[in-house]
Design a protein that fits this description.
The protein is an alpha/beta fold. Among the domains are: 219 residues, Rossmann fold (3-Layer(aba) Sandwich), CATH 3.40.50; 97 residues, ANL, C-terminal domain (GMP Synthetase, Chain A, domain 3). The protein is built from 17 helices and 30 strands. Strands 1, 20, 21, 22, 24 and 25 form a six-stranded antiparallel sheet that branches. A five-stranded parallel sheet has the order 5-4-6-7-8, with helices on both faces. The longest helix has 29 residues. The N and C termini lie far apart (79 Å). The relative contact order is 0.10.
Length: 569
Amino acid sequence: MHNMARKLLLREIKNLKWQRKLSCSAVLRNDFVVKSTIPDIIVPQERFMDRLWMDSAGFQNHVALESAETKMNYTYAQLRKNISVFATSLLKKLGLKPGDVIAVMLPNCPQFPVVAFGSIQAGVVLTTVNPIYKELELTHQISITEPKVIVTIPECYDTVAKTVKSSKMDIKIVLVDNPSAAVPNGAIRYSEIAESGEADYGLLDKVERKHDDVACIPFSSGTTGLPKGVEITYGNLLASMETMHQKENCFPVLTHGNVQDIVPSFLPFFHIYGLVVTLIGHLSKGCKMVTMAKFSASLYLDTLKNEKPHLLYIVPPVAILLGKHPDVNHEHFSNVRHVCCGAAPLAASDVDSILQKSKHHIEFNQGFGATETTSLGTSTFKGTKDVDYSACGVPMASVTLKFADPLTGKAVPIGEEGEMYIKGPTIMKGYHKNPKATEESLTPDGYFKTGDLGYFKPGVGMFITDRIKELIKVKGMQVAPAELESILRSHPAVQDAAVIGVPHEFYGEAPKAFIIRKNGLKATEEELQDYVASKVAVYKKIEEVMFVDDIPKTASGKILRKELKKMYA
């Protein structure tokens, strides 16, 4: 009995040791991965448009979108009808087929979602273009996506027409027009294919697109040159909508009766933040979107005072404006209950400057997202107490984070700094026609490598500390140094060029160029700034130029930007 008891005891000890070993392994495994604390979503199986309008019965007569500049507006009933009429016109009048591409080159306006969601309803792939792009930038995007149609405004017509002509592609141009004004020969009036005629719902109901089919291709700046097309699927869009509708981070209140949230909408709809978080996230709840074609401080502040909005979606330069502008006071925040800031990190002191101007409690959170994540991947949950305003929130439903050594790719324990990897049902399918970039950015187990350095502090949230990717964040917009360097090197007086981002009081960062001039040739700072400005959108302009004798590089020729930043500092 004594020997038997001893054997049983030894066996029990062995089992305990084995169980402890298993337990420790689980703890170690969990020590490397941050999962959302709320249940995973179930991605809806219905069509995107059916899901978008699932709760719309009670707000058909409410205003959906109104232009802050012109006051032109659509009710939800008009918006839904125009979307379906435009979708029908694409298939019947313009001869597009599901899977063809349409480019929308519009500023924020009530017509934008008609084109965007009409394309999706027709099964046509949408690619969104910055309306301030110049010929070089537009050429790049249409050469990759090969659209059959470009929808734009008269102010952009010359750029679009020249680009289409030089591309030698057969592309129809649709103009969001003033019905009483003439349009150029060959251009198609938006009003004739979206605001008049009838929708063929029988035809639209036959359009079949799978969850894995590409719905839209926004563009994201890369580190090695011009922007890359990001393939966002129908499944990504549906997952994003479902994620944003979880009670922990659903900020809009569903419209009913006289209750309707008002949302100023200056964040560009061509950008994923504006398209998915703002438009999809709030039209699905019946909000009134007050669109701004471009950001103007005076118009924005007037909108805050006159419209008395409930939700503000902003970027750091606007947060700084709200906190520091002497004319901003509690009246501008009279109905605001939530402010969400994204696109770049914001200091907690800048958040405090805003909150101190309000006479009531406002929830404020930072979130993290990227074009490749379709929508926000992290956010502060509603009702969170003692928020650290410098943190970027916690993983949203179905989102997993981990941090890895940037050189080895090996995961580091939670709390240690590393490159942030993010996984979930909203992660892009890949980069359009760029398998090499896709392979470099997506891990075999489905994580997207963000290129941002950071860490996760349990009980507090995620912090972004630096960027591995060399992108410059100007007013929340991404600028690739390599793109500007390529343009600078094409100047006849430039031998070599390097560009870095330097701190800017209002923009956050701004591009600074280091130039080696060719022997015997001269070029002024202003001449080089103007040369670049003539070829790119205004936010990419070179803020400073420094002439140097040498640009530090690795043995393989890669620019050592960190060394340049040390020299600048």
